[in-house]
Design a protein that fits this description.
Alpha-Beta Plaits, alpha+beta, 26% helix, flat
């Protein structure tokens, strides 16, 4: 079954890292992929998202028509910064794999959620 591993954090902390700190963290992240990729537990390499300032939010306006605004839909300190798809037997296995992710500046929490399938 597939699980989405959502990486939450303060993207402003991430952008404040020095080049050396960012490189060190990326080395740790690449190491995580090197550990789990050969096991078949990573269903998709995932996607790192641009900072929240680059986002657009679309929601229904008062008249039911779409309204587009800049930025995320709420003023939050933590936002989703990346999504990685895992292939695991159950959510407990997915959580164990997620627990090995190198949490650091700009990454304060992980959420593992089953991917909806419809027949």
């Amino acid at each position: 079954m597939q699980y989405a591993m959502l990486i939450f954090g303060d993207d402003q902390e991430w952008t404040a890292l020095s080049p050396a700190e960012e490189q060190d963290l990326m080395t740790q992240i690449y190491g995580w992929y090197e550990r789990w990729q050969p096991t078949g537990k990573i269903a998709d390499g995932g996607a790192e998202l641009q900072p929240r300032e680059t986002a657009k939010t679309v929601r229904a306006g008062a008249d039911g028509q779409p309204v587009t605004t800049d930025g995320p839909y709420l003023e939050l300190k933590e936002v989703i910064g990346a999504v990685i798809m895992l292939e695991c037997d159950d959510i407990d296995e997915a959580a164990r794999i997620a627990a090995t992710w190198p949490l650091a500046a700009g990454m304060s929490a992980l959420e593992v959620r089953p991917v909806m399938t419809r027949e």
